[in-house]
């Protein structure tokens, strides 16, 4: 090796340069990968807290805590915060008068079979008025006093645009959600044309929540019926936290349907029924 000194030194120079190039590529790749992973903070929400603008339909995570954003009246957005009700802790959220809560739900993780697994509390909002609007939340057990050590979330909105007038003046006084349906039973009357209804049973989350019967919807596509049963509760009410069972019947428009098998989905719970004959008078 040493009898070819010039060649040895030359090979070493190329090898050193190659190692430096490889090191540089690895560092760049690591930086790019870390930036990509930081986009959602592990929440599944792809967002940038530096954007400064709240766009219609955006979903925000806890990364937005303490942020001030620009927004427009009429826009809808949601906030998703981790919550574990099995510990007794829950988010207590308040809004200024120009923010309307249109949905308030708890979502289980994909591995919902794990006892005590944390999920996500998700609120959906509509911006009703301009000016400075505020959303604040504190994570605590309802029966405990505030100590100042609790986890909190706050979001300030600087809103521009014309005020939104709700179709129903009482609309802003309620929080809306989706009923937790446990079981459905499909009932067919012994008549012709056949009449069909679906009976849904489940539990309401507290003593103030009721079925919003005026806004139950039934949509049919092909041989599938999709029934949505919403709930509502007064926005500022103090509610007992005991589950309240409910039962409700929803008629299905089956007149004129051809014979065949039909499925029904009520808030994610499915069933089916057959029609032995075309359901129409000759």
CATH topology of the largest domain: Immunoglobulin-like
Largest sheet: 4 strands, mixed
N-end to C-end Cα span: 103 Å
Count of runs of 4 or more consecutive helical residues: 1
- Total domains: 3
- The spatial strand order of the largest sheet comes to 1-3-6-5
Low-confidence stretches: 1-17, 30-48
Mean pLDDT, as a whole number?
78
- Shape category: elongated
* Element order: H for helix, E for strand: HEEEEEEEEEEEEEEEEEE
How much is the radius of gyration in Å? 28 Å
What class do helices, strands and sheet pairing give? mainly beta
Total beta strand runs? 18
Indicate the CATH class of the largest domain.
Mainly Beta
Which strand-content bin applies to the residues? 35-45%
| CATH architecture field of the largest domain | Sandwich
User: What level of helicity do the residues show?
Assistant: 10-25%
Task: Describe what you observe in this structure.
Strand 17 (260-266) and strand 18 (269-275) form a beta hairpin. Residues 1-17 and 30-48 have low confidence and may be disordered. The radius of gyration is 28 Å and the shape is elongated. The strands form 5 sheets. A 4-stranded mixed β-sheet has the order 1-3-6-5, with no helix packed on it. It has a 4-stranded mixed β-sheet with strand order 2-8-7-4, with no helix packed on it. The chain has one helix at residues 5-38; strands spanning 59-60, 67-72, 76-83, 90-95, 99-107, 119-127, 131-140, 151-160, 174-178, 180-188, 196-204, 210-211, 217-221, 224-228, 230-234, 244-252, 260-266, 269-275. The chain folds into 3 domains: 2-34; 59-165, Immunoglobulin-like (Sandwich), CATH 2.60.40.2020; 181-275, no CATH class. It is mainly beta and 282 residues long.
